[in-house]
């Protein structure tokens, strides 16, 4: 894999093509975007998918806080000269990527928002609460085995194969990576997002809200809230899909995103 600004990344498509920046969530890596990278390349787009620090093939960069990940993403985009981009985010990639987009108006010219949150009254789900709790979080990350990790992922996404489990288990590869997960979950509060209210809509760019109807971590009500706050957004809810859309419906998700980007963004400007 290539590397820029301390982050390993996958890419596809023509080097001079319009750019889609794909930001993964927890506990995944750029591997999740493989089907979409292929679809973007077929459409003449350059897809760029970094591994966040401490995930996939990117080394940890302690402390692995929310703010540090936002700053790391900006360094990555700046070093490669990627902006403006069509920004595609999932899970924690949304909290990181959408904050980055709001902090840098004009850097994102389209948004694809999937199974995440960006609301000041948000609430942590059960696993997040466990990771945020001293002692309980340490017990979880220190006790995680490859077998238990794979079994947990497969219980939530039947399409999760051994290769994906191996790629995502890299987040547990050493002590700094395991501690980085706790640093991420304990580093911020949803209330901080009060400063971002209205700023996504103010970007004025096309948006696709793509969600699994059965997501237990980011309930589908969040999709409808995004759609309400972004009046021009396209809302697509995938029936019977869960949180891990790229594993549940890889071909459909890749097609939905690639079709949206190619139809709504022209040669460098919003449609």
Q: Could you characterize the architecture of this molecule?
A:
- The structure is a single chain.
- This protein is α/β, with parallel strands linked by helices and 271 residues long.
- It has a domain at 2-27 and 44-125 and 190-242 and 262-270: Alpha/Beta hydrolase fold, catalytic domain (Rossmann fold), CATH 3.40.50.1820.
- Helices cover 42% and strands 17% of the residues.
- It is built from twelve helices and ten strands.
- It has helices at 34-42, 66-80, 92-103, 126-132, 136-143, 146-156, 162-169, 175-186, 199-202, 221-229, 245-248, 250-264; strands at 2-4, 7-12, 19-23, 46-50, 85-90, 108-114, 207-212, 234-238, 265-266, 269-270.
- The strands form two sheets. The protein has an eight-stranded mixed beta sheet, with helices on both faces. Strands 9-10 form a two-stranded antiparallel sheet.
- A hairpin with a 2-residue loop joins strand 1 and strand 2.
- Helix 5 packs antiparallel against helix 8 (175-186).
- The two termini are 33 Å apart.
- Residues 267-271 have low confidence and may be disordered.
């Amino acid at each position: 894999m290539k590397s820029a600004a301390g982050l390993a990344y996958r890419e596809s498509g023509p080097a001079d093509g319009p750019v889609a920046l794909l930001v993964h969530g927890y506990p995944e890596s750029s591997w999740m975007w493989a089907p979409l990278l292929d679809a973007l390349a077929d459409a003449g787009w350059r897809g760029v998918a970094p591994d966040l620090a401490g995930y996939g093939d990117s080394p940890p960069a302690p402390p692995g806080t929310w703010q540090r990940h936002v700053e790391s993403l900006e360094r990555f985009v700046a070093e490669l000269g990627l902006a403006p981009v069509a920004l595609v985010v999932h899970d924690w990639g949304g909290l990181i990527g959408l904050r980055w987009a709001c902090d840098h108006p004009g850097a994102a010219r389209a948004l694809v928002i999937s199974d995440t949150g960006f609301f000041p009254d948000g609430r942590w789900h059960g696993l997040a609460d466990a990771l945020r709790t001293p002692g309980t979080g340490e017990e979880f990350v220190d006790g995680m085995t490859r077998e238990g990790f794979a079994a947990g992922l497969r219980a939530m996404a039947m399409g999760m194969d051994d290769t994906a489990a191996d790629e995502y288990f890299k987040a547990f590869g050493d002590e700094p990576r395991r501690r980085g997960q706790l640093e991420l979950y304990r580093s911020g509060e949803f209330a901080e997002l009060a400063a971002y209210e209205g700023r996504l809509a103010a970007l004025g760019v096309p948006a696709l809200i793509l969600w699994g109807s059965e997501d237990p971590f980011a309930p589908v009500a969040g999709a409808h809230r995004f759609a309400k706050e972004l009046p021009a957004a396209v809302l697509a809810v995938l029936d019977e899909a869960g949180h891990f859309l790229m594993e549940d419906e890889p071909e459909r998700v890749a097609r939905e995103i690639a079709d949206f980007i190619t139809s709504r963004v022209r040669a460098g400007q919003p449609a």
